[in-house]
Design a protein that fits this description.
Length: 228
């Protein structure tokens, strides 16, 4: 079986590590935008995670000469009207500052209204910029009043995954991947890659020819989303 080159359209080391781990064993050579230092991702101008993931995949695939997998993800807090949403990475310059921003915004939010969810949207495009598939994952939780844990990145230290009784930053990478928004989306992507419609099976792909694009169960175009 031939090996396909797959560029992950991201510079984010945390995301790259999670994605590479979850795609291990597939006949793909995973690259990142660090291998293409002259390429710049387009602005995340979409109103949803799915739109932003598509923008990045469509731009990265032709520029890197192969398939590109793009992720757009972040935190949605209903008590903040869905914020930080698609601006999750842009509310401050660093992870500690983003956490301080979030906790400041939620200073007056009572315990009963601290629900939140992480959302991850994936999009895959080919070298012509055609979108081959879209997938989505969601992880529900609550926002704590102070950080816990030393692992992960982004808002992980204040995001409590209640059924485990741990924040994402208190979980090992294996624990987190089993329940996280990105883990869910990537497992659906992996199933597609291994299935009759996926690139590693050698079958024709859907999309531009009118065939339906693959979507994760429950995927939505909700306007509600981490660094690239």
């Amino acid at each position: 079986m031939s090996v396909r080159r797959l560029t992950v359209a991201s510079h984010n080391a945390g995301k790259l590590g999670e994605i590479s781990e979850l795609l291990a064993g597939l006949p793909v050579e995973v690259r990142s935008l660090r291998d293409f230092p002259t390429f710049t991702l387009p602005a995340e101008s979409g109103a949803s995670f799915a739109e932003n993931a598509e923008l990045k995949a469509r731009a990265a695939a032709p520029a890197t000469g192969g398939w590109a997998l793009a992720d757009d993800s972040g935190l949605v807090v209903p008590a903040l009207g869905g914020a930080p949403g698609v601006r999750s990475a842009r509310v401050a310059a660093s992870d500690p500052e983003r956490i301080l921003w979030l906790l400041g915004q939620m200073a007056e939010v009572t315990e009963g209204r601290r629900e939140a969810e992480f959302v991850c949207a994936l999009a895959l495009a080919d070298e012509q910029g055609r979108v081959l598939g879209r997938w989505e994952g969601r992880a529900p939780g609550r926002i704590l009043q102070e950080p816990r844990g030393a692992y992960g990145f982004g808002y992980d230290p204040v995001f409590l995954y209640e059924s485990a009784g741990k924040t994402f930053a208190e979980m090992s990478s294996t624990e987190k991947s089993a329940v996280s928004h990105r883990g869910q989306a990537l497992r659906e992507f992996r199933k597609w890659m291994e299935g009759p419609s996926g690139g590693t099976a050698g079958a024709p792909l859907g999309g531009e020819d009118g065939a339906p694009l693959p979507r994760a169960a429950g995927e939505s175009a909700e306007r509600s989303c981490e660094d690239d």
